[in-house]
Structure prediction request, 362 residues.
Amino acid sequence: MERRTFLRHALASAAVAAIPAHARAAQPHTTSKGEGTLDLHAMIRPAPRTAKLAMRDWLVWGGSMVRTPDGTCHLLFSRWPRTRGHNAWCTHSQVAHATADHPLGPYTFQGIALAGAGGDAWDAHNIHNPNALRIGSKYYLYYNGNHGNGEYWNHRNNQRVGVAVADHPAGPWTRLDAPIVDVTRNAFDHLITTNPAVAYRPSDGKVVLVYKTVSRGKLPFGGRVRHGVAFADNPLGPFTKHRKPIFTHPTAKFPAEDPYIWWGRDRFYAIVKDQGGYFVRANRYALVLFESRDGLDWKLAPHPLVCHPEIPWEGGRVQKVHRLERPQLYLERGRPAVLFCAVSPNKTNIPSYNVHIPLKQF
Prediction:
């Protein structure tokens, strides 16, 4: 795909024109009742066997679902060759596309939505961790991309946050010529920006983007793992960063991972992976719920536990898993309906797949 320096401005102008003043997200980020008392843990229901996306020759990770007006469910997810092992998420990942008639599946693979751009692009070699949403008449695919020499840490430390835009989730997707959230040297987001989570607030058209980052420190890992937040008036940016990190803990070097955010009737919510029981007294890697009125000041929700790293299957079996990560929601009529997660069933992280867990109304 040809990259041009004016592409960002052309797409931004088109996106603004496509969003009228009264527009809201096609999957509205609203909650009709129970604001402030959301209890996702109590809403979890057993998953049918069809609510799983696995591929024999590929490791699958992190699914984000949008639904088109015809009712088709479109799942954008990461995958990379199984033979290359788990760490190839950082060197060989691509975003694939699958469809289903129902949010729980089964999903049918349709093709590749976005792969490395090649050449000397900032996202030349790796595309990972998609977060898709519809705003106005356009679809936006936020992701982390990188380039590198084939070595894990080289690619990991070149990660940046980008976005692509399309008229339909089947594509074609047009990406920008530069990251939308870059690093700020010698700040808390010194080394990388990655794992974007985006929400749209219909009342004022504000776009809020949460991202993972690493501060300055001894390489190759770097310093503390933190999360930042940035704001824009347009889904394509430009994004303005807030100068302080969020989801922090006073002693933990790596307290949180994999936020997913959305807008309720009067506040933002975030599902976050608790890396070590820092926020709730639960299993390591539990998913927990935060809330915020403004996207800056985040606190634990009144019902903070979302789930332990386990999958309740229909028939009564509860499968304990090593990792339940990359949480994302499908919102039906503004209410959380399906929890999408990536799964590593054991410590080898092979195989890996996505699971789609129904919530109360399903």
